[in-house]
Predict the structure of Glutamyl-tRNA(Gln) amidotransferase subunit A.
Amino acid sequence: MDILSLTAVELAKAIREGKTTSVEATQAVLDKIAASEDTYHCYVTVEREKALQQAAGVQKKIEAGELTGPLAGVPFAIKDNMCTEGTLTTCSSKILENFVPTFSAEAVLNLEKAGAVILGKTNMDEFAMGSTTETSYYGVTKNPRNPEHVPGGSSGGSAAAVAAEECFAALGSDTGGSIRQPASYCGVVGMKPTYGTVSRYGLIAYGSSLDQIGPLTKDVTDCATVLEAITSHDPKDSTSMKRENTDFTSALVADVKGMKIGIPRDYFGEGLDPEVRDAVLAAAEVLKAQGAEVEEFDLSLVDYAIPTYYTIAAAEASSNLERFDGVKYGYRAQDAEDLHTMYKRSRSQGFGPEVKRRIMLGSFVLSSGYYDAYYLKALRVKALIKKAFDEAFAKYDVILGPVAPTTAPKLGSSLADPIKMYLGDIYTISINLAGLPGISVPCGTDSQGLPIGMQLIGDCFKEKTLIRAAYTYEQSVK
Ligand SMILES: NC(=O)C[C@H](N)C(=O)O
């Protein structure tokens, strides 16, 4: 049995049936990490001994019949912006180079309750700001489908680790596309759930009104299973919702008969790579052939999504990142003669250029005199974007489009022009502004062999509809 090629759900089944053990699987994936990390660099931290110990504990519980769930014994990777008790958590920033949390994020605890083994922490854009994982202080991650290209971002390490078989599944976070876009670039499945579904407790905040944790997996079955495991109502996160019917795996049914799918014309205009367009439209045809009703419609306001997102996300980031001052966490500049200089030097030396750009932009749009013109206006446009989606979901069950305008760019080609990089988020960010769920599903490759992702967007709380559509597509093209 080639353990590494199994999905998370297949591996857990093999462990339950005694065909392998959690320890054997953990050892196999640690060997794979040792062999391929030099090439891909998916992780900031790998916890070899801890993972093997955890696997041994989990295996005992499985054998004693105390852990019976569909993920028991499965080794996972966690994005390095989720706190993990006793394990370095850097957000891929120098400012957190020595931060070892005393508690774990609720989503991580939920996974551990389900019997997951935590392998380590994955590389990301610094504080999740970026679309390529190149803004990490700890070096770039390479795309396992073609190491000359970026894995996407900001959850690039998590997506690459799944694609490189350096874990069986991973957690990422998505503020403006950070799960879906790297999933699309690396040819894996990635889902951003409805805002409030997965607790943000222990997720180091970037844009708090937009951030959401979600799964990156090898297939749709794993995605639904991981989502089910990490979903919970958590009083420690004031935006966490009490949701009913979160048995997402019950939606793994290959049937879209009568499902109404809308294709926004605005998502197929200027800037979209023709190969991406063709692959996504071909995927829509597959769903049509399975009985879905597919039609085009106009989803206005798409053009306003980028400025709105980058105003709100930067504003929230500038406030959230105030806590990194050299006193309470992480890096502190040495030899400062007074407190103010110590703050200034710690932050100047601790943050990278993209993070500084956002802090400055965010402070600007929140400053008196500019608050109404920028921040408040962005909040108003955000409400209009939500309204446009509400109108669309009065007609359609699912909105289908591309995840990103292109396939993965070459390493080193994106950072020189930040505005161009921001424009690449055009199809993903309005979903965060509206709080909606979205899933990225692989739908082919371009002429260079780089993966293409189709994005399915649902109304709030309609993850099951997305899972059903994604699963139907996946089964049809198998
Ligand atoms: N965090 C994200 O979702 C990625 C987005 N490109 C950003 O830089 O904000």
Summary: Residues 128-131, 154, 174-178, 313, 425 surround asparagine (CB under 6 Å). The domain at 3-250 is CATH 3.90.1300.10 (Amidase signature (AS) enzymes). Residues 40 and 142 are 5 Å apart (CA to CA).
